[in-house]
Amino acid sequence: MGKLVQGVWHDVWYDTKASGGSFVREDAGFRGWVEEGEGVEFAAESGRYHLYVSLACPWAHRTLIMRQLKGLEAHIDVSIVSPDMLSEGWEFTESEPLFGATRLHQIYTRAKLDYTGRVTVPVLWDKKTQTIVSNESSEIIRMFNSAFNSITGNDNDYYPLSLRNTIDEWNDYIYPNINNGVYRCGFATTQQAYEDAYHSLFEALEKIESHLRRSRYLAGSQITEADWRLFTTLIRFDAVYVGHFKCNKKRIADYPALNGYMKELYQIEDVKQTTDFYHIKRHYYYSHTGINPTQVVPLGPQLDLDSPHGRESIV
Ligand SMILES: N[C@@H](CCC(=O)N[C@@H](CS)C(=O)NCC(=O)O)C(=O)O
């Protein structure tokens, strides 16, 4: 694990000293936008963009789900990094197809020779201008949701105008408390920072559990972007976050509504195809040697994700 400083790779763990033991996630460095239309910097075109992902990473997982649900497989190709993220950061098991790079930081310095920042997935690369469009998953999924509609003919809308306020409110609540909340538990280096993160995480899960008892999805009867953003954390929770990140007050399996909701989303074939528990468990337990120095990867838990979700009667 490390970062680029002026284009040079340094193998360093997160610095939590400056923030009293709390993990603070760095803002993404590339914030371009793929759009429909002529004369724009990054125009939506079939075959022009390449997506670098980790199957372990919840942020990258969002982009893979949206790529499938929006029928973009034939239009945006993908490279998958190795689950093992060690002294060189994210690496490719076999070199990636565009440049034969073996490390993801080489893609970042191709885009910006003197880049300073963390080298994260997902990354959306533009083959035409030879740069990174974006390394911010929340923005990549918005682009996938609408920019390629006239190419794919797929109008499914996961960020509909009428629900945007509700979706934004859920996202703003779920990001700090749950998506990043599990990391704030796991990467905390003081007891207090861990406990603060733990309490806000489980308070948020309780709140969503009661909401989902009456509501089929977060924003009502329709699946939206907010659900996909929550889902990628939930599906990793019992397998990794309970043990490795000490998020162990309860499992998702102990929350009937959240568990049924998660299973319903998982059982969508396109979504199941993007979920890889080998990469998920291997990455966290093998890569975070500060947390798990033996690198032993647990065999369990046995997950029950294919049993009936029981959510049909909820509107
Ligand atoms: N804001 C980014 C965060 C992405 C992110 O932090 N990805 C993690 C993997 S789960 C990563 O690549 N971490 C490497 C590092 O921090 O050095 C997004 O949502 O796209």
Task: Provide an overview of this structure.
The protein has 315 residues and is α/β, with parallel strands linked by helices. The chain folds into two domains: 3-152, 3-Layer(aba) Sandwich (Glutaredoxin), CATH 3.40.30.10; 161-273, Up-down Bundle (Glutathione S-transferase Yfyf (Class Pi), Chain A, domain 2). The chain has eleven helices and nine strands. It has helices at 58-69, 104-111, 137-146, 149-152, 164-179, 181-186, 191-214, 225-241, 256-266, 269-273, 277-287; strands spanning 3-5, 8-10, 34-35, 42-43, 49-53, 76-80, 117-118, 123-126, 131-134. The strands form three sheets. It has a four-stranded mixed sheet with strand order 6-5-8-9, sandwiched between helices. Strands 2-1-7 form a three-stranded antiparallel sheet, with no helix packed on it. A two-stranded parallel ribbon has the order 3-4. A hairpin with a 4-residue loop joins strand 8 (123-126) and strand 9. Helix 5 (164-179) runs antiparallel to helix 7 (191-214), helix 7 crosses helix 9 (256-266) and helix 8 crosses helix 9 (256-266). The chain is globular. The relative contact order is 0.14. The chain binds glutathione. Glutathione binds at residues 1, 28, 57, 59, 118-122, 135-138. InterPro entries: Glutathione-S-Trfase_C-like, Glutathione-S-Trfase_C_sf, Glutathione_S-Trfase, Glutathione_S-Trfase_N, GST_Omega-like_C, GST_Omega/GSH, Thioredoxin-like_sf. Glutathione binds at residues 90, 118-121, 136-137.
